[in-house]
Design brief:
Radius of gyration: 16 Å
Largest sheet: none
Number of helices: 11
Order of helices and strands: HHHHHHHHHHH
Oligomer: single chain
Distance between the termini: 21 Å
Structural class: mainly alpha
Strand content: under 5%
Length: 194
Amino acid sequence: MNYLAHAYFSFNQPPVIVGNLISDFIKGKKQFDYPAEIQKGIRLHRAIDTFTDAHPAVAEAKKIFRPHYRLYAGAFVDVAFDYFVANDQDLFPTEESLSQFVELAYNSLREHELHIPPTALGYFTRMQQQNWLYNYRFVWGIQKSFGGIVYRSKYLTDSETAAILFEENFFRLRECYNLFIPDLKEMVNQQSAI
């Protein structure tokens, strides 16, 4: 899953949101350098990623991107699924509810800025300035994020193909998301008890 999903599945707890968002920038035992609630978010992020990577609906969605993007197929699916998260009326019944949640996520990052790794600070500043989390609800926002994957990769040069694949396979991707998201919710709810 991508940033909006990770933030959403953090129990509305700012330190957990921060840990969940910064986890990709924290390697190995470095997680233990953080306060307990941020560590909880880091562990939750890793559990979500492990669960996502093993889910058959996600494997099916990756087939759409794999012929063109190989090992990066999962990253493109993560971004595509954030479109469906942002437009999921069970999660965000109104545009306002999405907007309010996004502000909670950004406020969480600002309040815990001292815990954001220096290498990630510029990244999360751009996320807020360009309002990535809210803009995932638009196809153009997803297309920009596809471009971000290509920009950060060593070997990719083309994000337009991903945008075409997303639009051509929109209903198939949505079906994969619909099969996946209830299972993710259940797994995350189980994590909340730990």
